Amino acid sequence: MAPRPEICIIGRGRLGGALALALRRAGFQTRAFGRPKNDREAARAAAALAQAGVVLLCVPDGAIAETARSHAERFHAGQVVAHCSGALDLSPLAPARAAHLGSLHPLCAVPSPRASLTGASAAVCGDTKASRALRRLARAAGMKPFDLPVEDRALYHAAAVLASNGLVGLAAQAADLLCRCGLEEHSALEALLPLMRSALCGLEANRLPGALTGPIARGDSEVVRAHLDALSSPADARTLVLYRALGAPLLALSQRLGRASPDQVRDIAAALARARSRGGRGR
Length: 283
Known about the structure:
The chain is of the alpha/beta class. It folds into 2 domains: about 5-150, Rossmann fold (3-Layer(aba) Sandwich), CATH 3.40.50.720; about 160-275. It has 11 helices and 7 strands.
């Protein structure tokens, strides 16, 4: 087995802290540094960078290039330097070109520096040596690495945003509708969270399209029309757009599922296409 490289993490925020914790638990000598407060801290960080076999830049996307520039003279041949952005290619690491360059992006939300990364997937890209080293670190941290072509990073990150930030946006829109039913926002979210968790559990257990439930899954066009009617006022224009946009992938899943008849699917598609705000009946 290859010797374990020393790890230096630049950035002590949520992701930097979580990676440092996971790698230390896995037996890697890992040092993490934030912004130096004095010359002594700067010297310690410089020494750790020079000694490290792998350097992970866990800083905001907009700070990666500047961080790489500020440490450029300390990066050296044989070393692996990687950022942890999901959206960026490797060009911000150009100042570290003496090293092997790569990227390691945990595909999960990291709510705190002590969050567990176990079970999460991790997107890896870079040259041969960087990718090999980063896959090893990902597995040691309990993650499941997969190779991501650098040219597909924007598409990959769009998928990640839809599945995470998009879920939060959906919760906000649904909570807003429940608030109009008389609930406070806190109570609305408390009511929705078990529903959302159960939907995710169903997705994990039954996959696609088996996890789909509800009126579009069973071809209930009358219920869909009632929803469209309820969202037809000008105040609901944004929610109506969202409901209609989500209708397309839900209809595609319903067709794969096969519970709704072709006529029912066409009826729902027509209702979604006709729906308009400003009091339209969606019929």
